[in-house]
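We close this part of the discussion by returning to an individual protein. The sequence in question and its structure tokens are set out directly beneath this paragraph:
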Amino acid sequence: MGLFGTKPPMLDRETAMTGFPVKLPAQAREEKDGKLHVTVKFHRPRWQQVLGAEKVCSRTFALDPYGREVYDACDGKTNVSQIIKRFARHHKITIAEAEVSVATFFKTLIGRGMIGIELKKRL
């Protein structure tokens, strides 16, 4: 690993669409001001630690109703493709529009340590 870490390998579209999003453990979940606030542990990058920051801290993220809908769908039983189709149907948008929105949001949730994607096939 280099000084600033390495990026995980990119998944092809087909593999990503068959993955099963699952919520990672959260320190707290709280309803406030019409949003779901989720607090997760965050491991700071090495360069921040070198500058004196603590290794682990907490961050809280607020999810609006759209974000919460997608986050709540991350049950480990529903794959990415099914979540996208449900989102498109519920909001009366095309599959392509839903795919862009949901996939972008999944990247955000993964980057914040809120969800992970299981890639093994379900029987």
Helices lie at 13-17, 46-50, 65-72, 80-91, 95-111. The mean pLDDT is 90. The first strand starts at residue 20 and ends at 23.
